Amino acid sequence: MSITFTKMQGLGNDFVVIENITQQFIPSKETIKQIAERHYGVGCDQIIVVEKPRNTGTDFFMRVFNADGEEAERSGNGARCFAKFVIDQGLTDKHHIIADTKSGKITVCLQDDNNVKVDMGVPSFSPKTIPFLAPEASLLYKLDLPDQLINSVQIGVVSIGNPHAVLQVPNVTTAPVDQLGIVIANHPRFPEGVNVGFMEIKSNNCINLRIYERGTSETLACGSGACAAVAIGRLLGLLDENVIVKMHGGELQISWAGMGEPIWMTGPAKKVFSGNLTLK
């Protein structure tokens, strides 16, 4: 079977985007892993599959798969790439697009400067929603890490349509992202796994951030992770409404008015190349 695809990236967080409207693509776990493999496949952090809308009031259904083949709820950087893709491919003439995802609707807007602004929805801090095993909601939680150099860490937890844990560090350059990221991402208190953000606060409107993504490892950038870090920082009274988030791949603008309000992300999305792929 041969399919057409487009390789895209948002701040170095790279995606293979496949439209499943005019062609037939069955995203099995093994097929996803084959495409995402960087030596023998196309190579990417995640795969986005664009489908016809399943509900009225939406324009498309966006599916997101991690490199390990598991389907994720959504992706912030992926949403920006998705928007640029459907417009460039002529699948829509709208610049204000509503897409359904596994965890609900998102709204994406292509701006005049070619950046994409995304309504990532209202952050949820309920442990049940994330999901995170805790007797009650709290600003911070102590997470025990047996058999690690650090016995425990203090984390904030939030759902941006997908689960995130955020811990504050003095310096992201020296933060043990690989060592602690995989342990926290697979911690038993997160039944569905979790993305892990390491946040260094530079000022009340600027942070440095590194992200360890479940099912992938550390990525150059993570849109929902940037939103999660700002939400936790705001909740702790450390950040203002508008924050620049600096990651290895570049910067995102995050804006959040506070509890009960949607969180907005603005940043670039770029096409790398298109091609045809023959699947086994």
Summarize the topology.
Blueprint: E1 2-10, E2 13-19, H1 29-36, E3 46-51, E4 60-66, E5 71-72, H2 76-88, E6 96-101, E7 104-110, E8 116-119, E9 141-144, E10 152-159, E11 163-168, H3 177-185, E12 195-203, E13 206-213, E14 217-219, H4 223-235, E15 242-247, E16 250-256, E17 263-267, E18 270-278
Parallel strand pairs: 2-3, 4-6, 11-12, 13-15
Antiparallel strand pairs: 1-2, 1-18, 3-4, 4-5, 6-7, 7-8, 8-17, 9-10, 10-11, 12-13, 13-14, 15-16, 16-17
Give me the CATH superfamily of the largest domain: Diaminopimelate Epimerase, Chain A, domain 1
Helix content, binned percent: 10-25%
Estimate the mean pLDDT confidence. 95
What is the strand tally?
A: 18
Describe the structure.
By secondary structure, this protein is α+β, with helices and mostly antiparallel strands. 15% of the residues lie in helices and 40% in strands. It has helices spanning 29-36, 76-88, 177-185, 223-235, and strands at 2-10, 13-19, 46-51, 60-66, 71-72, 96-101, 104-110, 116-119, 141-144, 152-159, 163-168, 195-203, 206-213, 217-219, 242-247, 250-256, 263-267, 270-278. The longest helix has 13 residues, at 76-88. The chain is globular.
